[in-house]
Amino acid sequence: MKRIVLLTLLTAVTLGWGAPSSAQSPGVAEWARNSGEVSRKSAKQQNKLLKKASKKQRKAMKKYAKAQRKAARKAERGAR
To answer: How far, CA to CA in Å, does 42 sit from each of 17, 36, 49, 71?
Structure first.
């Protein structure tokens, strides 16, 4: 029984010793650099989404214009 307790205690101490201590907080320069990277990535992603949305809108406008032309032709044929 004592051996199991001693082995468990020794294992716990060994694992605790090997764990890294808490790291220091990043400095101002590193924080600013990381912030810049994040903002660039965010801007790039936003631009990509904007391009995709505008492409979708252009496609919808072309489809609407085509439908209007078709309706006009149909109305013209019906008027004759």
So the answer is: 40, 10, 11, 43
Interatomic CA distance for residues 46 and 44, integer angstroms:
5
Q: Is residue 21 part of a domain?
A: no
Question: Whole-prediction pTM value?
Answer: 0.49
Range of 58's domain? 36-80
26 Cβ partners below 8 Å, 6+ apart?
34
pLDDT digits (tens, 9 = 90+) for 41-63: 999 999 999 999 999 999 999 99
The reply to whether 2 falls in a domain is: no
